[in-house]
Design brief:
single chain; 400 residues; alpha/beta; seven-stranded mixed beta sheet; three-stranded mixed beta sheet; 15 helices; 13 strands
Length: 400
């Protein structure tokens, strides 16, 4: 995908709003602008109906009912509501379950919530290690589970190396110990068919801007019979079953629903298959360059179909990205730590050295990325490496 002169290879940071999604949102900005909580006139009713339809659409995407869908501002808020909301309620009731398990490659917001639970509420937080490919060990998970564990939070698809966890197996194990399973599934809609996810999780977080919907909207699925166990973190008028107060942004909710509908279509299945093929082509062409590169994380068939995280041996990733500006957009890791110069905790968790981490770049292709974009990107990367190496020839065996 090209925006002006810029090739966009950072879709796991954010996706553009799909054109058909934008078309469905537009009327709710200037024509159907009623407050969805205004219950005494037709404009309010129409907005309310649009929000309800959006909840139904998201529910169909993951296999839940509409009343189990809570709209939020994004996956970060959803993760906070899920974990803080449950733990606060549990602490208030004096439960003996005072432990939470998270994987070492969770999104920074989940790890940050864990620290808050530990420091402010006295909860025990155990971090589950992953293997070199970014997968949680089921045997290690089983060893850590017990009647003191309240909740386990493990993401479905990693945002940096793309590893796809066995959510069904994890869910079975967690539930067998009577614990609650929360899943950050923000990266999943592009990567997976999700129609059974609500059956395998108790709470699940989604983010609009990771799935061709707008920024500023997300969802927390909460199993119906669990909702009275969640303490709100936003108080006010008691909207959304009292779990998340505030006037809902109708256009954004409509966009989230439309994107969910789009991602259930036959068209999106074809696009996902094409995305996987283009990703494979991109990696193949990178490997044909006269530079040593190493693929970080799992094999291609076990990762997000648009993800390529590679180490450019002997180079510094920030230098490469700097030379590539303003022609190619990619990243060294999560955009949510923007402005903070620190090594990727995900790459560290899978055992990479500091030198290897500093040489690694995440390229994430999207549905609109085509072969012409790939050819141009590979050519730009080659030229950047030539420049950084002093135009010297550097032919070695690739590790992809």
């Amino acid at each position: 995908m090209k925006t002006g002169k810029v090739l966009y290879f950072d879709h796991q940071a954010t996706t553009p709003v799909c054109k058909q999604v934008l078309r469905k949102m537009n009327p709710y900005y200037s024509e159907l602008y009623g407050n969805p909580h205004s219950s005494e006139h037709i404009l309010g009713w129409r907005s309310s109906q649009a929000v309800e339809q959006a909840a139904q659409q998201v529910g169909r995407l993951i296999g839940s009912d509409a009343d189990e869908i809570i709209f939020t501002s994004g996956a970060t808020e959803s993760n906070n509501l899920a974990l803080l909301g449950l733990v606060k309620n549990t602490v208030a009731k004096g439960s003996k379950r005072n432990k939470i398990l998270v994987s070492s490659i969770e999104h920074k917001c989940v790890l940050a919530i864990g620290r808050v639970l530990q420091e402010q509420l006295g909860f025990q937080v155990e971090t589950l290690s992953v293997d070199r490919k970014g997968f949680v060990s089921l045997s290690r998970l089983k060893e850590s589970l017990g009647d003191d564990v309240l909740i386990v939070s493990i993401m479905a698809v990693n945002n940096e190396i793309g590893s796809i966890q066995d959510i069904q197996a994890i869910a079975r194990m967690v539930r067998s110990f009577g614990a609650i399973f929360h899943c950050d599934a923000a990266q999943s809609p592009i990567a997976l068919k999700m129609n059974d996810f609500a059956q395998d999780t108790d709470m699940l977080s989604l983010s609009g801007h990771k799935m061709y919907a707008p920024k500023g909207v997300g969802v927390l699925y909460i199993r119906r019979d669990l909702q009275n166990e969640i303490e709100p973190i936003v108080y006010g008028g008691g909207q959304q079953n009292g779990l998340r107060s505030g006037t809902l942004p109708t256009p954004l909710c409509v966009g989230m629903g439309a994107a969910a509908e789009f991602l259930m279509s036959e068209q999106s299945i074809n696009l996902r298959n094409q995305l996987s093929s283009n990703r494979k082509l991109f990696l193949k062409k990178l490997s044909m360059l006269p530079w040593q590169i190493t693929l970080n994380g799992p094999p291609l068939n076990s990762r997000h179909p648009g993800n390529v995280n590679v180490e450019f041996n002997g180079f510094i990733a920030q230098d490469i990205l700097g030379v590539l500006q303003p022609y190619l957009a990619a990243s060294t890791g999560s955009a949510c730590t923007s402005g903070i110069l620190e090594n990727s905790h995900v790459l560290k968790a899978i055992g990479l050295s500091r030198e290897q981490i500093e040489a690694s770049i995440r390229f994430s292709l999207g549905f609109d990325t085509d072969e012409e974009d790939i050819d141009e990107a590979v050519e730009l990367i080659d030229k950047a490496l030539q420049l950084l190496s002093g135009n010297s020839s550097k032919v070695t065996t690739n590790s992809v």
